[in-house]
Please model this.
Amino acid sequence: MNENNKPPNFIKKVENFTRASIKHAASGFEHVSENVKRHRTRLCAGCDFSLPPEDNPSCSQCGCFINIKTGWASESCPIGKWGALNQNQSGGCKSCGKKKT
Model:
């Protein structure tokens, strides 16, 4: 692991998780569809900042567990690969994450 891929320290991880949990609660604990979660997870899996183990990888930028963060609608990638969604952005059906046209 190079110095740029070093995860945040424990205190910073707790701060980041607490902030994410508050946003998740404020969103009404809204989750994304399985399709959106799979897409986000694939993006994370191919990222240089994804850390092993493979069964429960974490992000070296924020320290969050990818399997959790990718499922929360209120969350976004710390380097901008995917963004937060709300009900209006998900098109209402939450099947694909795309806006209605």
User: Anything to note?
Assistant: The longest helix spans residues 10-26.
